[in-house]
Amino acid sequence: MSVTTHGKAFAAPKTDAAGRIPLIGLTLEQMREALAVHDIPAFRAKQVWHWIYQRGVRTFEEMKNISKELRAVLEAGYSIDRPKVIAEQRSEDGTIKWLLGMSDGQQVETVFIPDNERGTLCISSQVGCTLTCKFCHTGTQPLVRNLGVHEILQQIMHARDVLNEWPSSGPDKDDGRDLTNIVLMGMGEPLYNYENVAGAMKICMDGEGLSIGKRRITLSTSGVVPLMQRCGEELGVNLAISLHATNDEQRSSIMPINNKYPLSELMEACRNYPGVSNMRRITFEYVMLKGVNDSDEDARRLIGLLKDIPHKVNLIPFNAWPDSGFECSSNTRIDKFSKVLIEAGVTATVRRPRGRDILAACGQLKSESQRAKKTHFHEGE
User: Fold this and answer.
1) What residues pair up with 108 in beta bridges, in sequence order?
2) Residues catalogued as catalytic
3) Best CA proximity match to 313, nearest among 294, 293, 287
4) CATH assignment, 84-380
5) HEC profile of 350-374
6) Distance from C-alpha of 172 to C-alpha of 170, rounded to nearest angstrom
7) What contacts 332, CB < 8 A, 6 or more positions away?
8) What is the mean pLDDT of residues 80-98?
9) Topology given in CATH for the domain delimited by 17-79
10) Which residues of 115-144 are buried (b: 16+ CB within 10 A; e: fewer)?
11) Helix %, strand %, coil % for the chain, to 5?
12) DSSP tag of 19
């Protein structure tokens, strides 16, 4: 299935359950056009935009410089709702995971990871995933649909609500803020939902929008080669590649997408990624699977594979989940693998697992509704 066909087959809803048009996710020009249907002047649209993205209001009633009559019109035809919080879990290490319900009842998971110098929000781009990577818990959940622009932004806005980080702009907007970085590493493959992801990130990066700079945004892809160039040209965000293997046979066995876009094509796309340089290196993510991809030979092949690409390697201890069929490499093996890379001049770090106790770590996201359905099914057998 082509990316275009994929987008049509799994399209996000354009209205909420009540038939109202979400204003979150519209560009300022689109918002002006939408409100013009009710003869609402352009300057009012700018005020609404400001209330939504700068002040973070959750109801039209809070828009105090807009008349009561106009607020009633907005309430009847449009929405600025946040997703419903189905569940919130807090890890002993400070990580927060939310299960969020969209207006049609579909659910996604979003994770906030606090650290000493930054706070990273891991957001989802799809309900489920189409890639079926063997080691990823999310990959066991079938793709239901793409998330819309508004649903991607709602995850960020919800996190700001919880962290009490409105307004979103001003001279001191980064002073003391907990949420500093966005990573598109949650449920789904972002480049299979590129149009909506791009729309959301443009509003996210807009200085009068959510005002999070492109240097603080990282998009992780399993290697949808045809859209990597466009992503770099249009968004200019940091790129991360879910690599996890060093030859085609090995990668195809755990990541079926490699059958469509083999390593030679993926590496060439990385070399040509707009803006890539020693100052803006591509991150290659590599999950450590015992007896699968963790030998010294694998490490040496990885070194050769990344030659001539400005890069850094993020080694990820496998986060176990029930019936995965994989084990995490031992600490000793991970250390030896890392040493081979470092001695060859590769910048390699071992990711510290976060949120394991609440299934919020890398590769563990999967909506609770799917877990519940599976449990109910087995109990009823």
Assistant:
1) 100
2) 109, 362
3) 287
4) 3.20.20.70
5) ECCCCCHHHCCCCCCCCCHHHHHHH
6) 5
7) none
8) 93
9) DNA polymerase; domain 1 (1.10.150)
10) eeeebbbbbbbbbbbbbbbbbbbbbbbebb
11) 40, 15, 45
12) S
Q: Which helix (H) or strand (E) holds 149?
A: helix 149-163
Give the end-to-end CA distance of the chain in Å, rounded to a whole number.
Answer: 35
Whose tokens are 């999310």? That residue is: 138
Amino acid sitting at position 75: E
Tokens of residue 22, six digits: 């979400």
Alpha-carbon span 317 to 301, nearest angstrom? 19
What's the token pair of residue 59? Answer: 């109801």
Every domain of the chain with CATH number 3.20.20.70 lies at 84-380
Angle ∠(158,23,78) on CA atoms, nearest 5: 110
- pLDDT tens-place string over residues 9-43: 899 988 888 889 999 999 999 999 999 999 999 99
Q: DSSP secondary-structure letter at 166?
A: -
> In residues, how long is the chain?
381
Domain(s) of CATH 1.10.150.530: residues in the chain: 17-79
Find the Cα–Cα–Cα–Cα dihedral 2, 8, 9, 13, rounded to 10°.
Answer: 150
How many of the other CB atoms lie within 10 Å of CB of 282?
20
Q: Determine phi and psi for 82, rounding to 5 degrees.
A: -90, 165
The C-alpha atoms of residue 312 and residue 241 are separated, in whole angstroms, by 10
Residue 30, token pair as written in the block: 């689109």
Task: Kindly tell me if the per-residue pLDDT of 46 is higher than 70.
Answer: yes
The model carries a pTM of: 0.91
